[in-house]
Amino acid sequence: MTERLVVKRTARAILLDGDPSGSLDMFLIKRTKPGEAPYWITPGGGVEPEDATVVAALHREVSEELGAKVTDVVPAFVDTVSHSLHHAAHGVKVQHFFVCRLASMDLSLRHGPEVDEPVGTYEVVRIPFTRAGVASVDLVPPSLRAYLGTNIEGVRALLAPDLG
Questions:
Q1: Taking all residues of the chain, what is their mean pLDDT, rounded to a whole number?
Q2: What does the pLDDT look like over 6-59, one tens digit per residue?
Q3: Do 136 and 38 touch, CB atoms closer than 8 A?
Q4: How confident is the model at residue 87 (pLDDT cuts 50, 70, 90)?
Q5: The dihedral formed by the CA atoms of 120, 124, 127 and 132, expressed in degrees to the nearest 10
Q6: What is the per-residue DSSP string for the chain?
Q7: In 3D, which of 155, 156, 140, 147 has the Cα closest to residue 38?
């Protein structure tokens, strides 16, 4: 198979709050677009030219979408999907998913296109970070839903104090 051109990169947060050895919750955004069924996504978005790194993009996106700050950012999962950019360049979108811990959140500080010029609604929701919690929503992409469904314990371990 030939290598495909990466036309877009995103940084997304598997954003957890609570005690990794006990009860954890995950923050998601419930997206509702006119005429479409709702779906749930992790906070995050595209890496922009002004972002020094993918992790810098993650921090910017979490700030924009949630008015939040995160700590303990650890790479967890990468997803590659076919993608067209402005119907011209065809290639792939690489989505970087990071597990991270919520440090603070103030929804009144949300800003950016999702807040300033929304298409539909962006509702911040909190679900239990359990197999049942993840299965209770239509989390996209499906590859992330499958990854979390089989790796809840491993993702929790990425926030363990002895990870290094």
A1: 91
A2: 889 999 999 999 987 779 999 999 999 999 999 999 999 999 999 999 999 999
A3: no
A4: low
A5: 20
A6: -PPPPEEEEEEEEEEEEE-TTS-EEEEEEEEE-TTS--EEE-SEEEPPTT-SSHHHHHHHHHHHHHSEEEEEEEEEEEEEEEEEETTTEEEEEEEEEEEEEEEEE-GGG--SHHHHS-SSEEEEEEEESSHHHHHTS-BSSHHHHHHHHHHHHHHHHTT-TT--
A7: 140
Strands 6-18 and 89-105: parallel
pTM > 0.85: yes
